[in-house]
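thoughts on these tokens:
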Amino acid sequence: MGDRIELSINVTTMNRNYWSDVCTGKTWEEFLKKGASVTGFRERGKNVAEKIRPGDYFICYVTGLSRFIGVLEVLSHSYYDETPIWEDQPFPIRVDVRVVYKLDAKTAVPIHDLRDRLSIFKKLRTPTHWSGFFRRSPMPFDPKDAEIIIDAIKDAIANPIEREYDEKIYWRSPRVYTSTDLGDVTVPESEEGNIEEADTEPIQTTHEEMQWLLLKLGSDMGLDVWVAKNDLGRKFNGVPFKTIPNLRKEIPRQFDDATNRTIELIDVLWLQKDAIIAAFEIEHTSSIYSGLLRMSDLISMQPNLRINLYVVAPDDRSDKVIAEINRPTFARLSPSLPKICKFIPYSQLKKEVGQIGDKVRYMNPRFIDDLAESCKADEV
């Protein structure tokens, strides 16, 4: 671990900063098994970790369970070390710590028990926008939020409440990253055990419903609309897509044949005259990857084309969407897919469509961009 001077610090709460330490149940248990004296982060966390000082606190959050499980006091400045602690990843940006408060999986504090008191749940653009804070760590906590969470953890130690949890989700491995000349490569997780279990969209929402809403919304705003060539025969609530006004039978032919074949399979397009102004891929239960490949093919073939791109998916797939969009194969495009493609949760789209009502004819199509979440990996 190198020659370092360990510091014993007496820091007042007023001078203390608070940071997130996001883990899976598996990495938390490995941390405890190895003595609970060193925590670690991926190399991309290096710049933030350099701001952490002895006496600061880490608040430990278990993904999947969406629960706070402990508090650690920082005992050293950050340093680089690959001494094995965790099985799946080295997490080489290390910080020496001691455990201040510790719970277990059953008694850990669900974040949703605190949602009425935490600032990360205020003024949400979408119901799951709060989860962006926990997509990476370390991240600085609002001191007031940190104190609320720590008080809740202390109360859970004094008055434990046991809650059931999914062992499979708790013991899952973290996403795997390997180094290549393109940067970090994410190996996709299975669809099971995706991060964040709450605020999910009701199961009765279907791919066809989302397609119908987008087609009808575009048509009602006076736009021409296009549905994927292989979906033209679909219906929603017994009503054929073909009956939607302004549904185009052909897409503009200003592109080459290869580009047109890609565009024809995108789930929904909005057009003004012959200009495509928005493209939507709806990822209901699929791997997400296929829709993104269509978008990336479009960018590769027409790099100067300026179209707003959106992935529309169930609320609880937000992390999955953002992780996939930030894969190097998409992030290295020019322009970069994470910069020009955004995520729209089902619930937000349904809510807005319901509220617009008869005003839809006066809406500017650009309003759709206000519903969408950025897919840049570092934004929360």
